[in-house]
């Protein structure tokens, strides 16, 4: 929200008060509290009729420093509040130090400095004493607006050339400088400034992150009100934010996700190709079987089949009952599909239509959200007379899950948890939560409810969602997909921007609708999107009014779908290793280029390419004629599909057929390559090949490089130590006595054996 009218004036009716000087300071072990006046005090009379701002500084975890600013402390917080699995002030090791008027708080490599002799300010320093950012003379404030609302405000300085990223899955420009961003869930598609996944966290190119600990609406002005500041504000009496240390972007994400929750590890089968019925299409078992048969006849391996909304009867979403006129034998149908090796996904949402039998049941039990006068909250958008499940009620959560448990017993494996964004604020929640704070947070308890059911019923490591809405901490319940995009090249590019922004907001896994959702894609769009989608974390064919089976777009689309599905399966030992890394460290599978190359200034603006795991550079083609422009960082890279080498740093201008896109292997990479191209969850050690890629500047050397091939539970199936001595390569296995193959991609020399293999 903007409060000023240019540099000199306030907007009409706005009154602002800024922390000006310290009037009192209490320093404790690992924390301190300052009371700041909002004007200079020259005489005792100046202390009257004037507010103080209380500023508490502390460390919730190692390498993270929190600042809590409060005007009136008497406001009751009805919740909800973000949960922090990694909250551990005792382990933060925070310490305070005073030197004259200077007070410092240090946690890990991060220090907060406050100088009592100078103008009001908070300065954040890295381990070398370099200023990262700071809240300067107008950086700590509150303001009232003409409507009587009270806002707490913070400003953190932007340095010259500093870029800001993240703030959730945003489809606007990738670099957020110059933008106004409201953290407020909305069902707005991918072609607007609205977002399904709003995360009050941003990452700076200078090697730190900022998390605003407020689940309600947070307004960010990223150099868009005061151009040298990131301003954020909340309509509240208290504002709390955390500075997260790096110094690398990966370390920022590691600390942030350690605090807010690391993503669960999705099951390996979920990384295969998903096919859906699409949304508004007509389908029954015969249709579904024809799709599955069609994929098999065309040698396109399929891992998951998804039933979208109309598996239930019209006007009755959700009652979680199969439409008996269309699916008279759902148990038999699911059994027949599962006999073919398929997993089953079902569409659900948290809304209960009035025509659903669950409406009366939920109303009687008190499980539906109500207005202050006791009426059930209802409207006619989406479903006529629909109500909303009150997930703040533990009994309502169990009731909801009891309906899903029936589907799991029928053979369903996972759920697409759609919606959860249009949450009203004129309601009363069972647990007394503040409706404004609950608007964004609803997505968290909705997805957590379903995810925990899957973990309970299917076991840890087997739970996976296809979720659309999320807030901070939502990364714990993967996978998330990008929502409703148009079937166009423009929407394909905006989808990628959203995914990259979400990755820099702590989310390890992300997907999108191959071909776009709205409308029917031109065959060129569909074929280009196929290659992009199958070189993503998760891959799903889905649309709105038309089917997304590849043969509907021509035989070449069939060939493209087959080629990249088989390729993804061969890459699974590598890809699942990257998934395990995301699960353990919070570093995402699909990585913006700056995550891997933070020291290369060119990578800081790149939003049409990414690293898939640490070693694969992927540049989707967004044109019909195959023209693509992408950047290659330093070193000699190898084109995965052709074996050609490219030496960077360089910009490449290329033309690709529909069966191709730039996929480059990083210099010095050791790529574990599976032999089984028919499924994503096979035995990766059976016929394993280690493909060793050269590159003078980054070849494996010294103590060597260790490559781990994971097992299906995310543990280590085997590890391989690769050591180079001149032109000789020695590979030693540990944890397996099975034979494996080694290929030196630069020379073409190969060898096979067990234990130690030498080239």
Summarize the model shown.
The protein has 759 residues and is of the alpha+beta class.
Proportion of β residues?
25-35%
Main-sheet strand order equals 4-5-6-7-21-18-17-15
Question: Which class do the helix and strand fractions yield?
Answer: alpha+beta
Largest sheet: 8 strands, antiparallel
Oligomer category: single chain
Layout of helices and strands, plus pairs?
Elements: E1 4-5, E2 9-10, E3 15-18, E4 21-28, E5 31-37, E6 52-61, E7 64-70, H1 89-92, E8 95-99, E9 102-107, E10 110-115, E11 122-125, E12 131-135, E13 140-144, E14 150-157, E15 164-168, E16 180-183, E17 198-204, E18 208-212, E19 218-222, E20 229-234, E21 238-245, H2 249-260, E22 273-276, H3 285-297, E23 304-307, H4 330-338, E24 343-348, E25 351-352, H5 357-365, E26 387-388, H6 394-410, E27 414-417, H7 435-458, E28 480-481, H8 489-503, E29 510-511, E30 513-514, H9 523-534, E31 539-541, H10 555-570, H11 572-585, E32 590-591, H12 593-596, E33 610-612, E34 616-618, E35 627-639, E36 645-655, E37 663-665, E38 670-673, E39 689-692, E40 705-710, E41 716-725, E42 728-734, E43 740-744, E44 749-753, E45 756-758
Parallel strand pairs: 22-23, 22-31, 23-24, 24-27, 28-29, 30-31, 39-43
Antiparallel strand pairs: 1-2, 3-13, 4-5, 5-6, 6-7, 7-21, 8-9, 9-10, 10-11, 11-12, 13-14, 14-20, 15-17, 16-19, 17-18, 18-21, 19-20, 25-26, 32-33, 33-34, 34-37, 35-36, 35-37, 38-39, 40-41, 41-42, 42-45, 43-44
Helix pairs in contact: 6-7, 9-10
């Amino acid at each position: 929200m903007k409060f000023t009218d240019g540099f000199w004036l306030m907007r009409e009716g706005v009154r602002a008060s800024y922390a000006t000087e310290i009037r009192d300071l209490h320093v404790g072990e690992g924390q301190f509290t300052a009371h700041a006046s909002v004007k200079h005090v020259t005489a005792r009379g100046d202390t009257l009729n004037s507010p103080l701002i209380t500023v508490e500084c502390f460390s919730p975890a190692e390498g993270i420093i929190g600042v809590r600013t409060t005007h009136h402390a008497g406001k009751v917080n009805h919740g909800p509040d973000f949960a922090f699995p990694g909250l551990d002030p005792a382990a933060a090791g925070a310490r305070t130090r005073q030197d004259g008027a200077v007070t410092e708080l240090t946690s890990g490599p991060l220090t907060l400095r406050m100088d009592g002799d100078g103008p009001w300010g908070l300065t954040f320093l890295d381990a070398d004493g370099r200023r990262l950012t700071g809240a300067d003379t107008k950086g700590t404030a509150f303001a009232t607006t003409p409507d009587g609302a009270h806002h707490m405000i913070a400003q953190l300085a932007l340095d010259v050339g500093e870029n800001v990223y993240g703030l959730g899955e945003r489809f606007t420009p990738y670099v957020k400088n110059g933008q106004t961003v409201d953290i407020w869930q909305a069902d707005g598609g991918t072609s607007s400034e609205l977002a399904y996944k709003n995360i009050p966290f941003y990452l700076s190119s200078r090697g730190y992150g900022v998390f605003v600990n407020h689940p309600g609406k947070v307004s960010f002005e990223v150099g868009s009100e005061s151009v040298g500041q990131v301003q954020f504000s909340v309509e509240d009496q208290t504002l709390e934010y955390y500075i997260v240390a790096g110094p690398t972007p990966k370390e920022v994400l590691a600390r942030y996700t350690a605090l807010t929750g690391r993503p669960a590890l999705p099951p390996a089968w979920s990384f295969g190709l998903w096919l859906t019925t699409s949304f508004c299409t007509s389908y029954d078992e015969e249709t579904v079987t024809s799709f599955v048969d069609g994929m098999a006849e065309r040698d396109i391996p399929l891992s998951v089949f998804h039933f979208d909304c109309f598996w239930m009867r019209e006007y009755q979403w959700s009652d979680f009952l199969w439409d008996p006129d269309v699916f008279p034998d759902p148990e038999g149908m699911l059994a027949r599909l599962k006999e073919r090796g398929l997993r089953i996904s079902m569409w659900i949402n948290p809304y209960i239509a009035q025509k659903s039998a669950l409406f009366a049941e939920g109303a009687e039990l008190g499980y539906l959200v109500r207005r202050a006068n006791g009426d059930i909250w209802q409207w006619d958008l989406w479903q006529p007379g629909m109500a909303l499940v009150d997930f703040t009620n533990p009994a309502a959560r169990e009731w909801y899950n009891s309906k899903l448990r029936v589907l799991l017993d029928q053979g369903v494996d996972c759920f697409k948890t759609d919606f959860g964004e249009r949450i009203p604020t004129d309601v009363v929640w069972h647990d007394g939560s503040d409706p404004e704070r609950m608007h964004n947070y609803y997505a968290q308890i909705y997805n957590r409810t379903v995810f925990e059911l899957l973990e309970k019923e299917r076991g840890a490591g087997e739970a996976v969602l296809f979720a659309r809405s999320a807030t901070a901490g939502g990364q714990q319940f993967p996978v998330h997909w990008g929502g409703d995009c148009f079937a166009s090249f423009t929407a394909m590019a905006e989808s990628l921007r959203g995914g990259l922004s979400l990755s820099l907001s702590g989310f390890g896994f992300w997907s999108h609708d191959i071909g776009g959702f709205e409308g029917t894609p031109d065959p060129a769009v569909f074929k280009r999107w196929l290659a992009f989608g199958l070189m993503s974390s998760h891959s799903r064919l889905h649309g709105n009014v038309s089917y997304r089976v590849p043969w509907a777009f021509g035989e070449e689309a069939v060939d493209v779908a087959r080629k990249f599905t088989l390729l993804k399966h061969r890459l699974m030992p590598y890809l699942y290793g990257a998934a395990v890394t995301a699960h353990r460290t919070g570093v995402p599978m699909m990585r913006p280029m700056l995550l891997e190359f933070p020291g290369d200034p060119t990578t800081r603006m790149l939003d049409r390419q990414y690293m898939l795991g640490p070693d694969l550079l992927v540049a989707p083609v967004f044109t019909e004629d195959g023209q693509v422009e992408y950047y290659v960082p330093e070193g000699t890279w190898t084109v995965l599909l052709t074996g050609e080498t490219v030496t960077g740093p360089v910009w490449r201008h290329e033309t690709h057929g529909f069966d191709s896109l730039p996929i480059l292997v990083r210099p010095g990479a050791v790529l574990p390559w599976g032999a089984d191209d028919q499924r994503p969850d096979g035995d990766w050690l059976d016929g394993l090949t280690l493909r060793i890629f050269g590159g003078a500047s980054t070849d494996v050397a010294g103590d060597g490089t260790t490559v781990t091939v994971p097992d299906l539970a995310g543990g280590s199936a085997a590890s391989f130590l690769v050591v180079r001595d001149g032109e000789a390569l020695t590979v030693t296995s540990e944890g397996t006595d099975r034979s494996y193959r080694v290929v030196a991609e630069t020379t073409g020399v190969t060898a096979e054996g067990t234990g130690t293999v030498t080239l």
